[in-house]
Amino acid sequence: MQDNIITITVEDQEGTVRDLELPTDISLSLMEALKASEYDILATCGGMALCATCHIQVQDDFDLPSPNDDEADMLDTLHNAEYNSRLSCQLRVSPALDGMKIKIIGAE
């Protein structure tokens, strides 16, 4: 990681993979950063962990803190949730995300 830039590898719904470089001082959620980078994420609830339209899967057993109760409850309602599912609205862009690989699942 150089200065305050992290790299996240993103696979979109069509299977296209590209690296996304993000500054860590932007104070945004991963969902907001993905939307700003023109990924197709609905984010219907605006980042409140109420809709799961920003559902992602974290690849390669990347170590993240456990979801909070609201996020865990929402993930429990999804038929396609896996052990590595997260809501991108609940992850803040920070140095801890450097090198993470994700697959955007979104609303299904």
Automatic annotation (TrEMBL):
Keywords: 2Fe-2S, Iron, Iron-sulfur, Metal-binding. It comes from the Bacteria. InterPro entries: 2Fe-2S_ferredoxin-like_sf, 2Fe-2S_ferredoxin-type, Adrenodoxin-like, Beta-grasp_dom_sf. Gene3D superfamilies: 3.10.20.30. It holds the Pfam family Fer2. The keyword Iron-sulfur applies. Its cofactor is [2Fe-2S] cluster. Residues 4-108 form the 2Fe-2S ferredoxin-type domain. CDD domains: fer2 (cd00207). PANTHER family: FERREDOXIN-2, MITOCHONDRIAL, FERREDOXIN/ADRENODOXIN. Belongs to the adrenodoxin/putidaredoxin family. This is 2Fe-2S iron-sulfur cluster-binding protein.
